[in-house]
Structures are given as C-alpha cells and as structure tokens.
Amino acid sequence: MNNPSSTGLNIKSLPWGTFFFLLLVFALVTPFDFSWPQTVQLKANFIDTSEAIARMEHGNMGRRIGMLLLGGFAIFTLARSKNRFRINGALGWVLLFYFIWIISSLAWSIDPVFTLRRVITVALLWLAAAAISARHSLRELAALAVFITGTTAVLAFANELRLHTFNPADQIWRFSGLFHTVAMGWNCGLLALAAMYLAHVEKKKKCRIFFWCILGVAVLFLLLTKSRMAVAASLLSLGFFGLRVFSRRNIMLLILSIIMIGCFSYLVLGDMLLYYGEEMSTLGRGDVAKESVSNLTGRIPLWVECFHRAIDRPFLGYGFNTFISPTNLELIYRNIGWLPNSVHSGFVDALMGLGFIGFGAMTISFILALVRSLLLSKKSVDYIFVTSVLLWLYDNLLLEANLITMPTFMTFFSMVLLSRLAFLPGTEWEP
C-alpha cells in the first residue's frame, strides 16, 4: 500500500493562467465543435472520398492558429525555466531516435507536404510537453488534467442540453458534445484517472470529497460515450491504481461485494443475466454494434489492407502518419469499402508510417517508460498515477491511433508524462 505524502495541492498557488491558456489552445486545435451533436444526429458527418481528401489537403485554420500559440508558449516557457533536462538511460536515447526517425520520414514520404504538416504538429506538441513537464510537479499536472478534461466534459454536457440531443435512452445516441465519442471517451477516462489520484493524495476532507465526486461523474460520462476500448482501458487503469494504493482490507471488501452482487443478480434475473451481459459488452449500442464485434467495427479489413501494403515499404514506411492521406485514401476506400480517418491502431500506424524501424523504436520506448514508471512507483504514489496513465494509453492504442498522433489534450498529456520519464529527474524530491 502507498500512502499519500503529507502535502496536498495548494489550489490558490496553481498556475491558473497557464491552465486557461492551454484550455483555449486545445479548444482550437482539437477542435471544439459546438454543432457536432446535431451533425451526428443528421448523419452529416458521413462524407464522400473527394470531400475527405479536400479536408485533408486544406486542414483547419483554427488548428493552425492554436498550434502556433502552443509553439510560442513552449519557447517562452523553456526560455524562462531552469534547465533540468537529462537523458535518462536507454529510454531517453530510444525516444530521441524515435523523434529523429519521425523527422527523417519526410525524405521517403509518399506525400511530403502532408507529412510535413503532421511532423510540425507532433514536434510542437512534444516541445510544449517538454516545457510543461519541466515546470510543474506531477500533482500540478494532474490538476491541469482535471481542469481541462473536466471543463471539456461540462461544456460537452451543456452543449448536448442546449441542442436537445442528450438522450441516453436512445440506443444510437452516444455522449460526445464537442467532438467524436471516442475522443470524449479518452477525455473522460483521463479525467477519472487524474481525479482518483488527487482524491487519494489530498489531505483536506472537502477536497477529497470533491475529487471523488468528479471521479463518479467522469465514469458516468465515460459509460455514456459507449466507446468500448476507452471504457475498458479506463476501468482497467483505475483498477490498477486502486490495487496499488488501497489497503488489502478494502480491496477484499470490494471483491466480495462484486461477487455478492453477481450472485444476487443471477438469482433475480436468471438466464436474462446473459442477455444483459451481452448488452453490456456493446455498452447498449444495439444489434448493429453486436454484429460489428467480429471484425472490430471494420478494423480487421483495414488492418489486413495495411499489412498487405506494408510489404511494399517494410523498413521505412509511407511517412509519419501518412498512410491515410490524400494520396492513398481513394485506393484504401475501394479496397475496404469505407473511409477511415486513421488506421485505428497506434501500433499499426507506426508500422505503416515509419516501418519496422519506427515501430520498434516506439514500442521499445513505451516498454522502457512503463518499466521506469513502475520502478519509481515503489518510492512515490505520484508515479503509480503515471503508470496508470501509461497503461491507459497503451490499451487505447491497440484499437485507436489518434490518441498519439492528433493534437488533443489527451495526446499532449501522454507526451508530458513520457517526456518527464525520459528527460527529467525521476523523483519529485530531487532538486
């Protein structure tokens, strides 16, 4: 069991100016779309190949402005911060090689202009992540996560109410509010993890109750997104954090309670429990979702197409995050029958964009980061939180790619923790 340290968050001393600035930035770069729920309801988010290609080629002006602001903020912050950076063993060197390989992919990209935009985006995210990781403690970073993801969730809920689209009783409806339901699932999952961590380390009773309430609301919103991988990854990571920090007595009480609830449910529902179990596996998304389970909602045909095409460029790939690009999109659509906006797996995306070399560098750096955070978690509860977020990230990347490539706050926060592990001292008590 890990006990919280004697100090908690000082709410008044938090860098609120930075928090509000980053909220504005990620509202632009994500971007927040206040018409999104109606767009989905009217099926207007389904577009043809030519429109998808046009959107890829032209990009988003708000996103460009937001990324410029983020880059300027990163340079300003680094210039004012004391240099604490160092290369932490193999993790630091492998991650540096991965960065260099991403930039180098411009040389062999099938669409250099498109790749250049993706490289600039990820470079600015990593630069800002390094700046933030060096300036703030893990508890301040967790407070940042709660503030931005919590504000985003509240805005999304208010927007659904404003548009009269909030309808949990409808099988087709999924909570989104401002952007795609999968991304909202990531948002709520990170909110739940950060809130659970702060609820554990806080010393003031009112603050603990506040964060536990946030955790409950975050889990509710998470379930309403009906995003299966986001829900599974979040619950597994929350479970891991709980097992590491709570007493054995409390864990046993929880396990016994779950067993008793299961037995009581079977006595009351009988064979209907199997039906409700099947409904839970699709999070209430109906028969269409059940039918799509076998091919992972179209991902398997897409991955088969990816592996067939990977043979042509096995070592270098097609350019960072460029396999799904204007150059390739029409051919992919003809082969699989639907329009993907990514390859729907962070690991497959690395293989397609950077070849086996880039895929290996990313995978090894992820493993080394997890090992380092696990070792540090023996000394500090703060790094149990880091480990939980890494597990959440890796689980999500099995079935999604945008969590590590698109400029969302959840992507940025993952980069902050990886930067901290790779390039900063490993304990909060080091100078």
Please describe the structure with a list of short key phrases separated by commas or semicolons.
mainly alpha, 431 residues, 0% strand
Describe what you observe in this structure.
- The protein is mostly helical.
- It has one domain.
- It has 19 helices and no strands.
- It has helices spanning 16-29, 36-41, 49-58, 61-80, 89-104, 112-135, 138-163, 181-201, 205-225, 228-245, 248-269, 272-281, 287-292, 299-310, 329-336, 346-377, 382-397, 402-405, 409-423.
- Helix 1 runs antiparallel to helix 4 (61-80).
- The radius of gyration is 22 Å and the shape is globular.
- The two termini are 26 Å apart.
- The model has no long low-confidence stretch (mean pLDDT 88).
Helix and strand topology:
Elements lengths: L15 H14 L6 H6 L7 H10 L2 H20 L8 H16 L7 H24 L2 H26 L17 H21 L3 H21 L2 H18 L2 H22 L2 H10 L5 H6 L6 H12 L18 H8 L9 H32 L4 H16 L4 H4 L3 H15 L8
Helix vs. strand class = mainly alpha
Gyration radius over CA: 22 Å
Number of domain modules: 1
Q: Poorly predicted ranges (pLDDT <50, ≥5 residues)?
A: none
Number of strand elements:
0
Q: Order of helices and strands, N to C?
A: HHHHHHHHHHHHHHHHHHH
Major sheet, described briefly?
none
Distance between the ends: 26 Å
Mean pLDDT: 88
In short:
The chain has 431 residues and is mainly alpha-helical. It contains 19 helices and no strands. It is globular, with a radius of gyration of 22 Å.
